[in-house]
Amino acid sequence: MAHRMTFTTTPPPEDDVVTYISSGGSAITDAFVADGRLTSTSSTEPDEETGVFNTSLIFVDSAACDAYLADMAAINESTTTGSYRSDRVREDI
Question: 3-state DSSP call for residue 36?
């Protein structure tokens, strides 16, 4: 069963340019897309005043999402860029 993970990204107000994912995180995401474990990604348009936006990642199943999160944890992605993300929700769809 497909599995969706959504989260909210809140950019810091003092930064003009923010990287929301590290190069290592991008490589992991690209690898999951290439091998078909991550089937879709989408983000809402940032709010004009706050810059807040929501992202949805759809995986082939919850095991693929678990593996994705484990790979991100292995490179300390949450330490690098995770402080911008909150309200993570996972659900089978």
Answer: coil
Q: Which two tokens stand for residue 24?
A: 């290592």
Task: Identify the burial level of 38 via C-beta atoms within 10 angstroms of its C-beta, where 0-12 means exposed, 13-18 middle and 19 or more buried.
Answer: buried
* CB contact at 8 A, 3 and 90: yes
Q: What is the pLDDT of residue 18?
A: 61
Question: What would the pLDDT profile of 31-44 be if each residue is shown by its tens digit?
Answer: 999 999 999 999 99
Instruction: At 35, list the tokens.
Output: 């091998």
Structural domains in the chain plus CATH codes: 3-92 (3.30.70.100)
SS3 6: strand
Q: What is the pTM of this model?
A: 0.86
Whole-number Å distance between alpha carbons of 65 and 67: 5
